[in-house]
Amino acid sequence: MAISRCCCSYKKATVIVCIFNVAAAFYVLDVLLSSSSRSSSGIPWRRRHVLGFSAQEALRIQEAHEIRRKVEPHELIDRVKEIQLESDQESSGPGAIRRKAAMDIVQRLRDIQSTNNQTASQALSEWRRKRLEAARRHEFLTSCSLIFFSILEEVSKLVELGWLHTHTEPPSLPVSDSDTGEILPTVTGAEVGKSKNRKAKRCRSHDGIIPGRIVPPECHAEAHTDYDGVAVRWGLTHHTESAADCCQACFNQAKAAKPGEMKCNVWVFCAAENGCYSPDIYEHKHQECWLKQADEPKLNFKGHYHEEYRQTHQNAPVVVPWVSGVIRE
Fold it and tell me: Which positions, given as ranges, span the membrane (predicted)?
């Protein structure tokens, strides 16, 4: 009798454990199904059924979800994503490429210096010499342009003081030392002119005087000027000895043009020995001659590049190096 009671108790315990396991299995299965299948209100259908939500309660929960989505800072999130994208582009953009190329060049130069290769050392010295010459030419052009505009400023002061109209001794003007920046003792206007003339003798090719043979008047040559127009002759492959020859090439093209073809009426010549600046992607060299056509010629640049422009275009010099002319019939 005791043995039968013990067996019954074991059977009952086994049944209870099985029922508990089945219930746990159903609960786990319900959780898995509810996580994979969601209704349009964002609440799992099985979970809603288990929790016993009514239709009104489900509607309120759906409205709460919609309100929460509306108050999310979407603009801020989009802006953060844009900033992350910009930072990724900057890290892999042209600036990073240039820095990597510069580091590679520095490493190669160090390798050349560490070896005893005489040919490589000579090539390195020649490359350094050319870079120094290019830097000196750029500095020379900048200093000459500053001298030229300082002369114009002082002449305008003399005009305001009435010296050019009275033909008397020029009034005294303060002169600053360009090397130290200190104000020197007051000198007369004549002494100022002599000093500036001595400094400007080196810069005659940059103060409006066109190098080469004299340009005919009918060419209407303008120094430090760049006119726009449609290219009739590509200047990258068309070089002339002087601005006068470039103008003559424009005349020749206009005369030889067939009916219906564009006729040259604008010529642009690169007079700078170290090349001419242009905001395009090409490298413009000395003696380039561009033949253009324009019904109403418009100026690209004249005189000098403004400070604001040079801040955004770091390769731009102070003075416009081009010489241009518009041929008028």
Answer: 12-33
